[in-house]
Amino acid sequence: MFIPSGVEGLDEIIPGFPRGDLIIVAGRPGTGKTVFSASFIYNGASKYEEKGLYVSLTEDKATFMENMGSLGMNFEELEKRGLFEFAEFLTLREEGMKPLLSEFLGIIEEAKPRRLVVDSLSAALQGFRDPREVRVFLHALLSKAVKRLDCTTLLIEEMPHGDLRIGYGFEEFVASMIIILRMRFIEGRLFRELVIPKLRGARISMPMACFTIHKGVKVFPPWKPIEVKGPRPYQPLPETGGRYSTGMEQLDRVLGGGIRRGSTILLDVDPGLTHDHYIPIINPIIANYCSSAKRPLIVLPSPGTRWESIAEIVKGAGMPEDLLPNLTRIIEPAEEVHEELPSFVITWKPESPERDFEKLADMEDLLLKSTGHPPIKLIGVDRVTHYHGVKGAITLANLEVTRTMKLGSLVIWLVREIYPELMEHLAPLSSIHLRLIERNGRPILYGVKPRTGFYLVEIDESRGSNVAKLTPME
Fold first, then answer.
1. In angstroms, rounded to a whole number, what is the distance separating the alpha carbons of residues 311 and 297?
2. Cα(133)–Cα(124) distance, rounded to whole angstroms?
3. Does domain 2-220 correspond to CATH entry 3.40.50.300?
4. Tens digits of per-residue pLDDT, 106-152?
5. Which CATH superfamily is domain 243-472 in?
6. β-strands 208-212, 218-220 pairing
7. Would you say the CATH fold of 243-472 matches that of 2-220?
8. What are the pLDDT digits (tens) for 162-203?
């Protein structure tokens, strides 16, 4: 039988924690073991009325309460309700294992918890003279406390740097479940990962997942497209300091309050990601630009994207359908047109980079004249490269940068990493360079220019449309 883990997102990839059994949570210092285990206790008490006991051999109660309170876990309130106890076990005696074990089990027997955390076995080992005593300790903990009280127990273990083994090695055979928390750096940015190498009685299809300890532990299962129920008109974020908003509060803060007028945004997308992954990043930028003052939009789609899909994206970004003819121009390659098109779809036959730039400029001028605002442009650079090669794409990009700065508008270059040599030239031309990658089935966004940490991409359902919410991977 399994119980909910109490860790946000984790139960989407596992059936829960084995009830009344021993679970090892292992990792190197700083990987989030204490916060993870505290979440197990806190949510078990606050959501399921299951009393929790946290036995700490490494940290005093005041420090624990303060640290967890800063992450939104109010253990003081649970303590008042009789749903939580904290036992300090900081002084380890030198008499050996027997008095240590007796007092340890006495604390657990008296509290009678349904959820227990022992933090940590590594600290408890200091009280043992003989490594064989560890087996006795684990056997007693499992038989006299965990099994008899039907108490689901998390046992924290430190993994020293350079050592892949957990503790003495035999703990892995005693436990019904093993969770390993990892912290590493990719391109100099912090990346957190959770691995479940063992869960007795269940098959795990995805044993690895990204997680964060930002405002508490949250695990991110593989991405699933979300269809927001009851979509509402897009509510733009305010534009401040002469900057355009990205439509994402977290990204606005990182960019110093939004996007400077006249900027070129390079969105560099991992080829393994799909339309569903990058649209929540593009949508709010376009929606905020267009919704704030009924500004127009021009789209030259990436290969394989039809005008119908773009029209749906534009409507999903909050533009009323009756305004599409006045505010939107979607370019459709002539060779792909086999039917009559609506007035806002423009048939496109490529010529030279210079001539194609002139056609885009003419389109911009007409929209500027009719609306009083320069349009935001979304350009699928891979299509331009398909038409004109790398050199031609760079030529058009140079011309676009200059014109965008002159008009004080925005252009988004959408690039899939198909032409590496193209990126060497586009990156220096861009004002903002964002990269979207995939790790453990999740899209992760980060800034190359300006440099940022990793942000896990979610859908912000509260916004009523396909808009990304960015959670720092802290």
1. 11
2. 11
3. yes
4. 888 899 999 999 987 766 666 566 666 667 777 777 777 788 889 99
5. P-loop containing nucleotide triphosphate hydrolases (3.40.50.300)
6. antiparallel
7. yes
8. 666 676 666 677 889 999 999 999 999 999 999 999 999 998
Q: Quick check: 26 and 178 in contact, CB under 8 A?
A: yes
CB 157 within 8 A of CB 167: yes
Nearest of 104, 109, 117 to residue 148 by alpha carbon? 109
In this structure, what token pair is assigned to residue 22? 């021993």
- Please measure the distance between the N-terminal and C-terminal CA atoms of the chain and give it in whole angstroms: 33
pTM of the model: 0.90
Task: Give the Cα separation of 370 and 471 in Å (integer).
Answer: 39
Give the domain ranges of the chain. Answer: 2-220, 243-472
At a CB cut-off of 8 Å and minimum separation 6, what does 227 contact? none
Q: Closest Cα to residue 71, out of 7, 158, 5, 3? A: 7
d(CA 79, CA 85): 6
Cα distances (angstroms) measured from residue 5 to each of 35, 273, 348, 454 = 13, 30, 55, 26
Measured CA to CA, the distance from residue 421 to residue 196 in angstroms comes to 39
